[in-house]
Design goal:
Radius of gyration: 21 Å
Helix content: over 70%
Distance between the termini: 55 Å
Number of helices: 15
Number of strands: 0
């Protein structure tokens, strides 16, 4: 709907460019924080709250390192953040695709898919709106009083286009494999999803489009797969089950909410020249810069710990296949 609105009213996404990012920080960012806390406690088998906090020390250490890196090396940190985000977005999308269609592919093929999707998402803003995208980077670096990035928009657009071409070539490898292994429908859906994402970045302000992707696409898919794994007996539910699960995560995130709000407000008063959606979004992005890497590492550790020897989707899909076969046998009745 927002993409159509951006097409009909071109100034819409520019006027409200930063709000999706700001909203996503508190609507889905806090549940992600709760997931991190619970995941770390689960992986460390920490029972009491004190042990959970102790097990969380390494996570806080990485957060502190991220803050320090952003202050001392802002441009390098943003580049590493882009790489980590591309891997995180792409891996989550590729994993969700296989879960949705009950398919499995070799790990190298999924990596091709994850690379393609992640790089495309991060590069497209610089292809279609290079100057606006650079201005977002400068708004983030301004928070740590760094010098602005001065580069020709045309140069940025060429580099981003080259990245997209490489990403699409990688996607072609993935979808070709799927096509020749009986997964044509999955391959078509993968190209369709990339097309929809490209349309959003083509029609909408890059900051609005990226925030919209995070708020309405990535976060819910990611939580849908990760949150149920926190239970002792993971299960897959419908959309209603997802909302209930995210609601429970919001309850778990309450200890994070108040200090985050206070810290966000203090930094905004201290550093933001103007309290508009654009600059508030820059502060939200700085928050994601700090938390993305430890969050991604935690999630990947969880999947590896759950499936130490086999690919996660292969086991998951095999379980679902066995369940469907058992259901079919029950429907037909036991053979006489």
């Amino acid at each position: 709907m927002c993409v159509v609105t951006g097409w009909l009213v071109p100034d819409f996404s520019t006027q409200y460019a930063g709000w999706p990012f700001v909203i996503s920080l508190f609507v889905v960012g806090m549940p992600h924080g709760a997931v991190d806390f619970l995941l770390n406690a689960k992986l460390k088998s920490a029972g009491r709250f004190g042990k959970q906090v102790q097990a969380f020390t390494w996570y806080v250490t990485i957060l502190a390192g991220g803050v320090l890196a952003l202050i001392v090396f802002p441009r390098l940190t943003l580049l590493l953040f882009a790489i980590a985000s591309a891997q995180h977005f792409g891996t989550a999308d590729a994993r969700m695709l296989d879960w949705r269609f009950q398919t499995s592919v070799p790990r190298r093929i999924r990596r091709c898919s994850a690379f393609a999707r992640g790089v495309t998402i991060l590069a497209l803003p610089f292809v279609f709106f290079p100057d606006e995208s650079v201005s977002v980077i400068n708004a983030v670096t301004q928070l740590v009083s760094a010098a602005p990035l001065i580069v020709a928009g045309e140069t940025i657009a060429y580099l981003a286009t080259a990245c997209v071409i490489v990403a699409l070539a990688s996607l072609l490898v993935s979808t070709t494999y799927r096509t020749f292994t009986g997964q044509l429908r999955v391959a078509l859906v993968e190209w369709l999803e990339i097309t929809v994402i490209a349309a959003a970045f083509w029609l909408l302000h890059p900051l609005f489009a990226m925030g919209l992707y995070l708020l309405t696409w990535h976060a819910w898919r990611h939580l849908y797969l990760v949150a149920p794994l926190l239970d002792s007996q993971p299960r897959r539910g419908n959309l209603h089950e997802l909302f209930r699960c995210v609601g429970r995560l919001h309850v778990h995130s309450l200890p994070l909410l108040l200090p985050t709000l206070v810290l966000f407000g203090v930094i905004a008063l201290w550093k933001l020249p103007v309290w508009d959606s654009f600059h508030l979004a820059a502060l939200a992005i700085a928050t994601f810069v700090v938390v993305t890497l430890p969050h991604h590492l935690l999630v990947e550790r969880l999947f590896e710990s759950r499936r130490p020897r086999q690919d996660w989707t292969e086991n998951e899909n095999a379980s679902r296949h066995q369940h469907s076969n058992a259901t079919a046998l029950e429907g037909r009745g036991a053979p006489g």
